[in-house]
Write a structure and sequence with these properties.
The protein is an alpha/beta fold. The protein folds into 3 domains: about 60 residues, Multidrug-efflux Transporter Regulator, Chain: A, Domain 2 (Orthogonal Bundle); about 50 residues, no CATH class; about 200 residues, Rossmann fold (3-Layer(aba) Sandwich), CATH 3.40.50.150. About 50% of the residues lie in helices and about 15% in strands. The protein has 14 helices and 10 strands. The strands form 2 sheets. Strands 3, 4, 5, 6, 7, 8, 9 and 10 form an 8-stranded mixed beta sheet that branches. Strands 1-2 form a two-stranded antiparallel sheet. Helix 10 links the parallel strand 4 and strand 5. Helix 11 packs parallel to helix 14. It is globular and about 90 Å long. The relative contact order is 0.09. The structure holds S-adenosylmethionine. S-adenosylmethionine binds next to loops.
């Protein structure tokens, strides 16, 4: 096809096609005599991909990187792009909410505006602060083997199977339900819900964990994403489960994570979190004291290095937000919160 035909076929302009060519995105064959460009079927496919990516906000430079990277599939790339767009969307939503509050408060004093702006700044800082200092990408291949090993002196996975089985027991699912597993890792919890016509979506910030999960459980839909910016639309899932993941977030981020969960959860939905947690602060203190007396210094170091949850904090927030709660404590450090909104 010549340039005018190709442009018409793709609902674009010859100028756009020449522009993509000048940026090195396409290289149509040229007739040596008259320099007319000829577009093959492969060129047309490539250009329609470029046009589609531009439509969803991908820059020309990013498209070039993507098309030249043989290790990144289009779906992987789109997954990353979706995750980034959800982060931007959530940041914009926070900004819009702050503007609404400024207008609605009827108090345009400098102090009030300053206070609201500071709150927004604080939110942005909390959201952007999280980093994967555990390097889960590197843990992905050996994760399933490693959790079976008894920890030296301190085994954080004691009770792992029982906790996952209890989540499976507590969360009622029906045909057609969507179950979201956040911090799905290699899929050990989410895969328990692959029964009947249930659709399981696994979100994780680690691409390698998602890769291992997909290889083990092809039926799970994996999405790159974060507890603080779930890559899902509002009220789109029936149940949310999560195991051994929330304790990678400090308490202030845990509250934002619960807000995100309620954003994507449908009415009458369920949330079930099994994780490293204490009943409350006094329980935490008691456990640490007993470990001190027993000389379990490594255990204390592990507890202090991570963010084992304060179950009371999770329960209070969920109750205040209309959930009915059940809780279980499996051992000193492993607990579960089941919440349902009616
Ligand atoms: C210890 S593994 C647990 C995996 C799985 N849920 C299980 O029970 O075996 C923690 C997982 O949570 C993920 N994760 C940690 N922090 C996260 C965050 N802020 N957002 C999304 N995923 C996170 C990690 O990438 C990792 O795959």
């Amino acid at each position: 096809m010549k340039i005018n035909e190709a442009a018409k076929f793709l609902s674009t302009t010859p100028k756009t096609l020449r522009f993509y060519e000048s940026k090195g995105l396409i290289t149509p064959e040229k007739d040596e005599n008259n320099q007319y460009r000829y577009y093959t079927e492969h060129d047309l496919y490539r250009i329609s991909t470029i046009l589609a990516l531009r439509e969803i906000g991908v820059s020309v430079e990013e498209i070039k990187t993507l098309l030249n990277n043989p290790n990144l599939s289009m779906n992987q790339y789109l997954d990353i792009q979706r995750s980034a767009l959800f982060e931007q969307w959530i940041e914009m939503r926070d900004m819009i909410e702050t503007i609404d509050q400024m207008i609605e408060s009827g108090n345009n004093s400098i102090e009030n505006i300053h206070q609201l702006a500071n709150h927004l700044k604080n939110l942005k800082e909390i959201r952007s602060k999280w980093q994967d200092r555990w390097n889960f990408d590197d843990q992905a291949l050996d994760y399933d083997e490693n959790i079976k090993k008894e920890g030296h002196i301190f085994n954080v996975h004691e009770g792992y199977d029982e906790a996952l089985a209890t989540v499976e027991e507590l969360v009622n699912v029906e045909a057609g339900d969507i179950v979201l597993d956040i911090g799905i890792g290699t899929g050990n919890l989410g895969s328990r819900f692959l029964k009947g016509e249930v659709h399981v979506i696994g979100v994780d910030q680690s691409e390698r964990m998602l890769k291992v999960c997909k290889e083990k459980h092809p039926k799970i839909e994996t999405r790159k994403g974060h507890f603080l910016a779930l890559p899902l639309l509002d009220h789109s899932v029936d149940s949310i489960v999560s195991s051994y993941a929330l304790h990678h977030l400090p308490d202030e981020e845990k509250v934002l994570a619960l807000m995100e969960m309620t954003r994507v959860l449908k009415n009458n939905g369920q949330i079930c979190i099994a994780d490293l947690m204490f009943e409350d602060q006094s329980h935490r203190k008691k456990v640490i004291e007993s470990y001190q007396q027993a000389g379990k210094h490594i255990a204390i170091e592990v507890i202090e290095d991570e963010y084992f949850a304060d179950k009371a904090l999770l329960v209070n927030w969920l109750r205040e937000n209309g959930f009915q709660i059940e809780t279980i404590q499996f051992n000193d450090i492993l607990g579960l919160v089941y919440a349902r909104n009616y």
